[in-house]
Amino acid sequence: MTAPQTLDCKGLLCPLPVYKASQALNRLQPGQLLRVECTDPGSLADFPALARQRGDTLVSATEQGDVQVFVLKKGSE
Amino acid sequence: MAAQAKPRRRRLALVASRGSLDGAYPPLILAATAASLGWEVGIFFTFYGLDILHKKRHKRLKVAPIGNPAMPVAIPNLVGALPGMTAAATTMMRRWMKRANLPTIPQFLDMARESGARLFACSTTMGVMGIREQDLVVGADIAGAAAFLDFAAEADVSLFV
């Protein structure tokens, strides 16, 4: 399995991390993974909501220092 | 087996009624977010809010320190009333927004259009304020309240911002 594509959203505030993640997910095939790195503290609440509303899966949400790392799996259309 | 009916997309209907720099951001941020969640979005730009769709004016939206107790740098009203204070506060806020990597109003409108958001331009406001169709950004739909309410009637979330 190839490593997931990574999206750097460090230094960006709402709505940009969610907006860019959504755009990147639109370009993926169902089942593919996207890794997103954020520093907006709101992201911890926003990414579960993004996954739920879009029908994707939030595989993991971790904090590495000041950076939040999310892994999303694109749902079926 | 019959094809499953595709679930209806959620829908956000916003009324944008403010034409200040600080007033223009909330509806555009909500619209960009809703579109990112896969929702349909429609915004009714009415009264001062129509300036957000005005090709020239939306690049020069201002924030006024007078009567605004929430400015991050406290500015007494008597000082805020002095000539140049609105321009100074606007410059300051634009600098903060740039530093925060927040898109500009025209950039937010591009994002809204790219995501298929409907931009309703209030025709009554155009008549009252003397704004012509050619003054508006590409993609603005001139409409009255009935057209917007028809869209909003099917909305899951409706907000006046």
What does this structure look like?
The complex is a heterodimer of chains A (77) and B (161). Chain A is of the alpha+beta class and 77 residues long. Chain A has one domain: TusA-like domain (Translation Initiation Factor IF3), CATH 3.30.110. Chain A has helices at 16-26, 43-54, and strands at residues 5-9, 33-38, 57-64, 67-73. The longest helix of chain A has 12 residues, at 43-54. Chain A is globular. The two termini of chain A are 22 Å apart. With 161 residues, chain B is of the alpha/beta class. Chain B has one domain (11-34, 45-160): Hypothetical Protein Ychn, Chain: A (3-Layer(aba) Sandwich). Chain B has helices at 21-36, 77-80, 85-99, 105-114, 123-129, 145-152, and strands at residues 11-16, 40-45, 118-122, 140-143, 157-160. The A-B interface holds A 11-16, 18-19, 21-23, 49-50, 53-55 and B 10, 29, 32-33, 35-39, 100-103, 111.
Count every helix of chain B, treating DSSP H or I runs of 4 or more residues as helices: 6
CATH C-level class of chain A is Alpha Beta
State the helical fraction of chain A: 25-40%
Q: What oligomeric state best describes the polypeptide chains here?
A: heterodimer
The total strand number of chain A stands at: 4
Largest inter-chain contact set: A-B, 16 and 14 residues
What do we call the CATH topology of chain B?
A: Hypothetical Protein Ychn, Chain: A
Distance between the termini of chain B: 45 Å
The gross shape of chain B turns out to be: globular
How far the N terminus sits from the C terminus of chain A, by CA atoms, comes to: 22 Å
Low-confidence stretches of chain A: none
Radius of gyration of chain B equals: 18 Å
Adjacency order of strands in the biggest sheet of chain A? 1-2-4-3
Structural class of chain B: alpha/beta
Q: Beta-strand percentage of chain A? A: 25-35%
CATH topology of chain A: Translation Initiation Factor IF3
Q: Give me the CATH superfamily of chain A.
A: TusA-like domain
Tally the helices of chain A: 2
